[in-house]
Amino acid sequence: MDDLKTAFFVAGSGMRAQGTRLRVISENVANKDSTANEPGGDPYRRKVVTFQNILDREIDANTVHVRRIGEDLSPFQLQYDPSHPAADANGYVKRPNVNSMLEMTDMREAQRSYEANLSVIEATKTMVTNTIDLLK
């Protein structure tokens, strides 16, 4: 039964980590058009999630956790729009470094990872139910 408990905890940690990743991706997509409020200022900067394995000594297994939510340091796009309130002295506006296609790809990957962990939990639940039925 301890192995089944471990499976629940490991899959649950994966679901929590991917849930955080999905939230950050959603924030990126929501801010893909957010520019600065002042001329020449920086717009929204894309965020990225990094994971790490942590040994859970109680269950003696590695679990996944969000290591950090950092900023993507790739350059901003420049768009010529001298009438925009955030335009610099040369008429350029910095646009967020968010690529919708990349975000959708990341979102799909996170969704599939989340679903895989959910499948592990469902399979483990079925095994526990079958074990209890055998013991009746």
Give a written overview of the molecule:
With 136 residues, the chain is of the alpha+beta class. 48% of the residues lie in helices and 21% in strands. The protein is built from two helices and four strands, in the order αββββα. The protein has a two-stranded antiparallel ribbon with strand order 1-2. A two-stranded antiparallel sheet has the order 3-4.
Provide a short characterization of the protein structure.
With 136 residues, this protein is α+β, with helices and mostly antiparallel strands. Helices cover 48% and strands 21% of the residues. It has one domain (2-135).
Which features characterize this protein?
136 residues, single chain, 4 strands, 2 helices, two-stranded antiparallel sheet, alpha+beta, two-stranded antiparallel ribbon, elongated
Number of contiguous helices: 2
Strand order of the largest sheet: 1-2
Q: Structural class of the helices, strands and pairings?
A: alpha+beta
- Rounded mean pLDDT score: 94
Number of domains: 1
Total strand segments: 4
What is the helix/strand order? HEEEEH
Q: Please estimate the helix content.
A: 40-55%
Measured by DSSP, the beta-strand proportion falls in 15-25%
- What is the alpha-carbon Rg in Å? 22 Å
Characterize the biggest β-sheet: 2 strands, antiparallel
Uncertain stretches of 5 or more adjacent residues: none
Distance between the termini: 16 Å
